[in-house]
Amino acid sequence: MVHRDNRWRAFGRVLLFLIGCAFVLAVTAALPIVRRSSSPELVIGAIASVGCFLLTLLFTRWDGLRLRDVGAMPNAKSLALLAIGFALGFLLVTLHSILVSAAGHVDWVRTSNPSTLQASLLIVGYLVLSTREELAFHGYPLRRLQSSFGVWPAQAMISVVFAIEHIAGGWTLAQALWGAAVGSLLFGMASIATRGLAVPIGIHAAWNIGDWMRGNRSQPGLWRPEIQAGFEAQAARVGVTWYVALFAVATFCFWWWHRAREPVGQGLNGMDIAPD
Questions:
Q1: Considering the entire predicted model, what is its pTM?
Q2: I want to staple 193 with a disulfide (CB 3.0 to 4.6 A). Which of 4, 54, 250, 254 is the partner?
Q3: For the chain, domain boundaries
Q4: How does pLDDT run across 232-243, given as a tens digit for each residue?
């Protein structure tokens, strides 16, 4: 069992790390290059990802850990794991689209194609933004809290902060709770189970890219949703319900995998932790 003082020391350092990542994001978003860019998502994601990685390096050194202890060190398997994450993310968004279409009176209508350059910038932008968010939430912070509090308390704390960041970005409370917080649980469990960030980055980026493709983002996608008149409220309920259900099942699968391969009581770098 981790000593109580060590737990709260870890909590304080994680809180400081999260504040640092929020500061990096705010400063990056205010840079003139972002306002002038035709792809602000890409610029913000790239610069903020570097900032979050440097903070991860600093805080892991402070705690006497290595980057691989918090899943932030790329290796020879990272590209393959990223591809697996992409496949899982696209599977989720495809299943969600099929289920919503079947039960929510929604059809997706083909729209005009964006140019190859526009599509490429958006795809890379979503990838680097997902990288920034996974480094900021499901790398050092999640793994450090996991070592001190256990899996689910750590997951709960990070999902709350993840939701708060999205509220600060303009999401409603309901969107943040049923969207961002639920997503955080899946991305976090994928990080814990695979002991790295490549899979959660892939899932996160693929979901965002797929959501853009089907017209659920501010930028025009390849399709747009067309809801039958009078079924708007039902379509919204069905969309949220299936999103939560699919992400819950995926989260449970990663949790089961983690439990099958991780001896109870072992945390980061072999440190003893409380049972999950």
A1: 0.91
A2: 254
A3: 4-265
A4: 888 889 999 999
